[in-house]
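A student in our group prepared the protein record below, which I am reviewing. Thanks in advance; the entry in question is below.
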Amino acid sequence: MAKVTTGGGDTGYTSLLGEQRVPKYDARPETFGTVDEATSALGLARASTDDPKVKAIILQAQQDLYMLMGELATPPENRAAVGVSISEERVRWLEDVENELKAEVAIPNKFIIPGDSVESAALDLARTIIRRAERLTARLSHDGALGAAGESHALRYLNRLSDMIFILARYLEARQGGSTRASRPKRS
């Protein structure tokens, strides 16, 4: 039986992949914890839809995010030994999926108010969490915690993922008859 409770974090520290331990509020656990939150939100979106194509895309993104969490939890000096990082191919996969979806659905040139369906709203929630993870990853990158410039594809992956998830939500809404667009407030 898997041991869920280890007690190792009871003092407020957590282990990175390697030997290093950091406070749980350190930028790394904050970032990979937010990616974990995004993965769970994507799970809610996947469970909410009956579209097999959408389910498969979301599941692949969730699997990628587990690899990304491993990369974020690994100091650059341990990355080669641990062997976890998101690849350029995964970024290209997102770009390919985005292009395929855009060929099937028109993306409105207006702000979208989430909530036309449970499944698209779940994707929009996941997208906002992915954007937060992207901001936190940008901080790690700018602070040099992801290694040399261009060494990690984590930031590009999250940026493309949030775009693709936005389009995926519009794809689901289009299947159901459209989306609610935000309009300009009327002047009184």
Remarks:
- The longest strand covers residues 13-15.
- The mean pLDDT is 89.
- The chain has one domain: 20-175.
